[in-house]
Write a structure and sequence with these properties.
The protein is mainly alpha-helical and about 90 residues long. It is built from three helices and three strands; from the N terminus they run βααββα.
Length: about 90
């Protein structure tokens, strides 16, 4: 009988289908939420979503990443406001 050369079990890939990204560029945001870049910048100026610039000092251009959690929170707040307005005032 031949002995195995390995002393540990082989490495196997795990299931990554349920992992959500925390940050994404404007293309990822459009792919996930269908929100275009101009709207993202307007929401950022109003403080409704969060973003971060990856520009290093001296660079002419930068990469901006958007917090997907803040976008989800913003959309959920819109949904909540819409649901509250449909119910009308409570006495």
């Amino acid at each position: 009988m031949r002995k195995s050369l390995f002393t540990i079990a082989p490495v196997q890939a795990s299931d990554c289908t349920n992992i959500l990204a925390e940050w994404g560029d404007h293309q990822a945001v459009y792919r996930i939420f269908s929100i275009k870049r101009g709207k993202l910048y307007a929401l950022d100026r109003l403080g409704l979503v969060r973003s971060v610039s990856l520009r290093r000092p001296g660079q002419k251009f930068s990469k901006r990443l958007w917090s997907l959690q803040s976008i989800r929170h913003y959309l959920n707040s819109l949904l909540q406001a819409q649901n509250d307005s449909e119910r009308g005032p409570t006495d």
